[in-house]
């Protein structure tokens, strides 16, 4: 399953149809739709695919999209012929209930049935029943029969079948069996459909937005800032400043396309890639040995070599997963705003943020951040003359304390943009921040944080199983840096004064 998940990420897979999945993995991840006994599953990677409805029955699950329905099926090799017929009738009834989408059906699964129709050199009774059912429903078989879908040391077979309606068949651009090692006797099957068949959701309000900063684009960014700064009609309008920076970013920087990124698994490394290549080659030798007339001793050696390669690959993945995740947790504990931010922004393919419903996330958030009665502090009347105004130097020093490469806040503006403007056009920030200081206002939009919940590696019940990360707008950090430095310096000054007074 680990290699399958890696493949889904690298190949930008929208939906994975799985028979006999890893039960622990399927239980812990809400992105997996399974039947009651977890004999079959559909995995939906976080690609923004719009899912209308899901459902399950014993031996099959389905996912309904806007314009098609996908079924994942598993038939036990010990099933009786009459039981198979009853099973197929149940699948047909389920499809009939899908309304208009009953005409747009894709079915994939391990049917443990052999028939000439999908490339098997022999045909059994269960294969005949399935083939007849396919013909009765006017479905198409996508298998080309060139490569076995199931292969082990003692032989191969064609028991994994891909079925679709005529309408979906017209949209199939590619279908093939991948012979690369996946640590399963069943080989991965890849199906490519035309894009209109898998519509993705529109970018929601909760998705991360923003821009990718490049030093080469700095000049274009600053030129646009100069053109737009005349719009700052007041000296305390944080919203106008945000609009200015957004306009400049849209003009000079490339925009991030959604929250999700397709990267290798967080545990993937060169050693695993090399071991997989060796295991793939060893399996091919086993396949060639089964087809050729070689002696039993040589065949036994080839099979042993393949088993050794598989074991080495499994052990390497297990070790890499543990090492990478332990390192990740240690780094988050040491610096919450470091590696944790990189996870959120997709700069590494580690464990994804919590995949749960909005209600579930709200419940967890309320527990992690309980509401308290607001304490009202006495207001102090301060004259404007008592408030020191900031200058270009103070703005620059504050921006220098903001680290590059960190995650942007809800507004999506990277810290590098703030730092570039502070260095080359500090007067813009001076005007805004002085206005806010004189007005005694900290903008609400600079206080709003985006909460990211990341699951802890150990199985812990309740809210303790999650690490909360809060992302705020970088402009809020800039103002915080200025206020914090002033408060710190004032406290130190008063401490020194008190010490001198005691000595006298």
Counting DSSP H or I runs of 4 or more residues, the number of helices is 15
Low-confidence stretches: 201-206, 258-262, 344-355
At CATH level 2, the architecture of the largest domain is 4-Layer Sandwich
Number of strands: 17
The helix content is: 40-55%
Beta percentage is: 15-25%
> Main beta sheet, described?
6 strands, mixed
CATH topology of the largest domain: Deoxyribonuclease I, Chain A
CATH class of the largest domain: Alpha Beta
Distance between the termini: 75 Å
Radius of gyration, CA atoms, in whole angstroms? 30 Å
Mean pLDDT comes to: 83
- Count of discrete domains: 3
Find the CATH superfamily of the largest domain.
Endonuclease/exonuclease/phosphatase
- Strand order of the main beta sheet, please? 4-5-6-7-11-8
Topology:
Blueprint: H1 2-10, E1 16-19, H2 23-28, E2 32-34, E3 40-43, E4 53-57, E5 60-64, E6 69-74, H3 81-96, E7 105-110, H4 125-136, E8 140-141, E9 150-152, E10 155-157, E11 160-164, H5 166-169, E12 172-178, E13 188-193, E14 211-212, H6 218-228, H7 238-252, E15 254-255, H8 270-291, H9 296-334, H10 339-344, H11 358-368, H12 392-400, H13 415-424, H14 426-439, E16 449-455, E17 466-472, H15 474-503
Parallel strand pairs: 6-7
Antiparallel strand pairs: 1-3, 2-3, 4-5, 5-6, 7-11, 8-11, 9-10, 12-13, 14-15, 16-17
């Amino acid at each position: 399953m680990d290699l399958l998940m890696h493949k889904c990420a690298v190949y930008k897979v929208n939906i994975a149809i799985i028979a006999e999945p890893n039960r622990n993995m399927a239980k812990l991840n809400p992105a997996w739709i399974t039947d009651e006994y977890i004999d079959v599953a559909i995995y939906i990677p976080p690609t923004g695919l719009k899912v209308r409805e899901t459902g399950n029955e014993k031996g099959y699950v389905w996912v309904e999209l806007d314009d098609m329905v996908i079924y994942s099926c598993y038939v036990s090799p010990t099933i009786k012929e009459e039981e198979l017929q009853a099973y197929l009738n149940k699948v047909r009834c389920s499809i009939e209930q899908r309304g208009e989408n009953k005409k747009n059906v894709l079915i994939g699964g391990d049917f443990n049935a052999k028939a000439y129709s999908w490339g098997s050199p022999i045909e059994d009774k269960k294969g005949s029943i399935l083939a007849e059912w396919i013909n009765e429903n006017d479905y198409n078989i996508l298998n080309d029969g060139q490569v076995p879908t199931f292969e082990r040391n003692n032989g191969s077979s064609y028991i994994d079948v891909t079925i679709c309606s005529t309408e979906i068949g017209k949209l199939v651009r590619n279908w093939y069996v991948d012979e690369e090692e996946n640590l399963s006797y069943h080989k991965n099957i890849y199906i490519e459909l035309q894009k209109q068949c898998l519509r993705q959701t529109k970018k929601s309000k909760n998705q991360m937005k923003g821009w990718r900063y490049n030093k080469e684009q700095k000049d274009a960014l600053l030129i646009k800032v100069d053109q737009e700064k005349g719009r700052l009609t007041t000296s305390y309008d944080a919203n106008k400043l945000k609009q200015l920076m957004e306009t400049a970013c849209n003009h000079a920087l490339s925009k991030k396309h959604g929250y999700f990124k397709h990267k290798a698994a967080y545990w993937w490394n060169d050693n695993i890639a090399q071991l997989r290549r060796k295991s793939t080659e060893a399996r091919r030798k086993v396949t060639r040995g089964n087809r050729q007339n070689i002696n039993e001793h040589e065949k036994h050696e080839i099979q042993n070599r393949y088993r050794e390669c598989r074991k080495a690959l499994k052990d390497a993945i297990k070790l890499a997963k543990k090492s990478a995740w332990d390192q990740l947790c240690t780094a988050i504990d040491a610096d919450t705003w470091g590696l944790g931010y990189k996870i959120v922004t997709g700069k590494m393919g580690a464990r994804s943020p919590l995949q749960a419903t909005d209600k579930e996330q709200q419940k967890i958030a309320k527990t992690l951040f309980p509401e308290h009665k607001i304490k009202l502090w006495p207001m102090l009347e301060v004259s404007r003359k008592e408030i020191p105004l900031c200058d270009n130097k103070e703005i620059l020093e504050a921006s220098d304390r903001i680290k590059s490469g960190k995650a942007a806040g809800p507004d999506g503006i990277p810290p590098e943009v703030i730092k570039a403007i502070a260095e080359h056009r500090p007067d813009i920030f001076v005007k805004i921040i002085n206005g806010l200081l004189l007005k005694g206002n900290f903008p609400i939009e600079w206080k709003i944080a985006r909460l990211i919940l990341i699951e802890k590696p150990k199985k812990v019940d309740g809210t303790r199983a999650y690490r909360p990360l809060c992302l705020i707008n970088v402009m809020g950090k800039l103002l915080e840096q200025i206020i914090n430095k002033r408060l710190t310096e004032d406290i130190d000054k008063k401490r020194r004064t008190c010490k001198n007074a005691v000595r006298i």
